[in-house]
C-alpha cells in the first residue's frame, strides 16, 4: 500500500530533503530508479528527463507528488524515457475525487514499439494511415492479406482508416485495421481530457493521427506474442500510480487501490485553466514520420 513519501523513503540513504520539493525528491530517488531499471539503462538520465518534463510542463509541480514519482518509477521499471524519444509522457489531469491534480503516465507509440522489439519476439511493428485516394485492400480468410499503395500523384484525399502490422521473429505476421469512424468512436469512449461539456481536448485533438496509430498497436497486441514489459506498459498506460514499491507495476490497475485508472476521474469541478487549450508538445519522435505529429 502507498504511504507518505517521507515514510516510504526515509529509511534509505536518499531520503527527500523536503516533502514539497518535487525536483529534489526526484533527484533523491536516483538510487531507487537504478535498482528498478533494466540492465544498461541509466537512472541519472531518467532524472534529467524528469526535470526537463517539469520545466516543459510546470503544472506537474501542482500534482500529487506520489503520482509523479510513481509514473517515473513505472518508466524506470519499463526502461522508457519520459518526454523524449516518444517513449512516454507525464501529463497532469484534474481528479475530481481528490479535487487536485495527479500525474498520468501516457506511454507513446514509440514506447510500445520499443518494448515490442525488446521482447525479441517481434521483428517489425509499424502503424500507418490510409487515405481515400490510396489503393487499399484487406482480405480476411485462411491467409489474411493487406495491400496498401499510397497515392504519390496529387492529393491523397481524406483519412479513411488506420492499421498496424507486426512481423514475428518466428515467422508469420498479424495486422489490425480500424476505420476513421471506428477511431472517432474509440476516442469519444476513451479520451480522458474532456471539457465540462464533454468536448475532447489534449493529445486526441492535437495529435489525433499519432494517437490513432498507438491505438492500433494497443489493439494489435492482443494477437502478438506475449511480452511481459509490453503487457505492463499497456496496463499502466494512461493510469496513475501512487505506489513506489517494486512489485506495484504488476498490480492490475482496476484492482489495486494504489494504481488508479485515470479514466474514472471526474473533471467537472476542475479549475478554469484546466480547460485551456493545450499547446502541441514537442514530440521528439513520439510518432513516425507519416503521423503528421
In summary, what is this structure?
This protein has ten helices and nine strands.
Protein architecture, described:
The chain has a three-stranded antiparallel sheet with strand order 3-6-7. The chain has a two-stranded antiparallel sheet with strand order 1-2. The protein has a two-stranded antiparallel sheet with strand order 4-5. The protein starts with a helix and ends in a 32-residue tail after the last strand. Helix content is 32%, strand content 20%. Helix 3 packs across helix 4 and helix 6 runs parallel beside helix 9 (208-220). The radius of gyration is 20 Å and the shape is globular. With 293 residues, it is an alpha+beta fold. The chain is built from ten helices and nine strands. The longest helix is centred in the N-terminal third of the chain and has 14 residues, at 43-56.
Q: What fraction of the residues are assigned to beta strands by DSSP?
A: 15-25%
Q: Calculate Rg over CA atoms.
A: 20 Å
Report strand order across the widest sheet. Answer: 3-6-7
Low-confidence stretches: 1-17, 254-268, 275-293
Note the overall shape: globular
Structural class by SSE content: alpha+beta
Oligomer state equals: single chain
Helix amount: 25-40%
So how many helices? 10
Order of helical and strand elements: HHHHHEEHEEEEEHHHHEE
Averaging pLDDT over every residue, what do you get? 80
Q: How many strands appear in the DSSP assignment? A: 9
In whole angstroms, how far apart are the ends? 39 Å
Biggest beta sheet attributes: 3 strands, antiparallel
Amino acid at each position: 500500500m502507498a504511504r507518505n513519501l517521507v515514510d516510504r523513503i526515509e529509511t534509505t540513504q536518499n531520503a527527500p530533503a523536503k516533502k514539497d520539493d518535487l525536483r529534489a525528491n526526484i533527484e533523491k530517488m536516483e538510487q531507487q530508479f537504478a535498482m528498478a531499471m533494466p540492465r544498461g539503462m541509466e537512472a541519472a538520465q531518467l532524472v534529467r528527463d524528469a526535470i526537463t518534463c517539469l520545466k516543459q510542463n510546470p503544472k506537474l509541480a501542482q500534482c500529487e507528488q506520489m503520482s509523479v514519482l510513481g509514473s517515473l518509477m513505472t518508466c524506470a521499471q519499463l526502461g522508457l524515457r519520459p518526454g523524449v524519444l516518444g517513449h512516454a509522457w507525464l501529463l497532469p489531469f484534474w481528479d475530481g475525487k481528490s479535487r487536485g491534480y495527479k500525474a498520468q503516465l501516457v506511454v507513446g507509440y514509440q514506447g510500445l514499439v520499443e518494448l515490442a522489439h525488446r521482447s525479441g519476439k517481434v521483428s517489425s511493428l509499424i502503424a500507418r494511415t490510409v487515405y481515400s485516394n490510396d489503393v487499399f485492400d484487406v482480405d480476411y480468410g485462411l491467409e489474411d492479406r493487406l495491400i496498401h499503395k499510397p497515392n504519390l500523384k496529387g492529393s491523397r484525399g481524406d483519412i479513411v482508416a488506420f492499421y498496424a502490422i507486426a512481423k514475428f521473429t518466428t515467422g508469420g505476421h498479424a495486422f489490425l485495421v480500424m476505420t476513421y469512424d471506428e477511431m472517432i468512436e474509440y476516442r469519444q469512449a476513451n479520451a480522458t481530457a474532456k471539457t465540462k461539456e464533454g468536448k475532447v481536448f489534449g493529445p486526441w485533438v492535437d495529435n489525433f493521427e499519432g494517437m490513432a496509430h498507438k491505438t492500433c498497436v494497443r489493439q494489435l497486441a492482443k494477437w502478438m506474442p506475449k511480452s511481459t514489459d509490453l503487457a505492463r506498459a499497456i496496463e499502466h498506460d494512461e493510469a496513475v500510480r501512487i505506489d513506489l514499491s517494486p512489485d506495484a507495476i504488476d498490480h492490475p490497475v482496476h484492482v489495486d487501490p494504489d494504481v488508479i485508472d485515470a479514466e474514472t476521474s471526474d473533471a467537472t469541478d476542475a479549475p478554469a485553466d484546466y480547460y485551456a487549450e493545450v499547446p502541441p508538445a514537442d514530440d521528439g519522435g513520439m510518432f513516425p514520420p507519416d503521423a503528421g505529429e
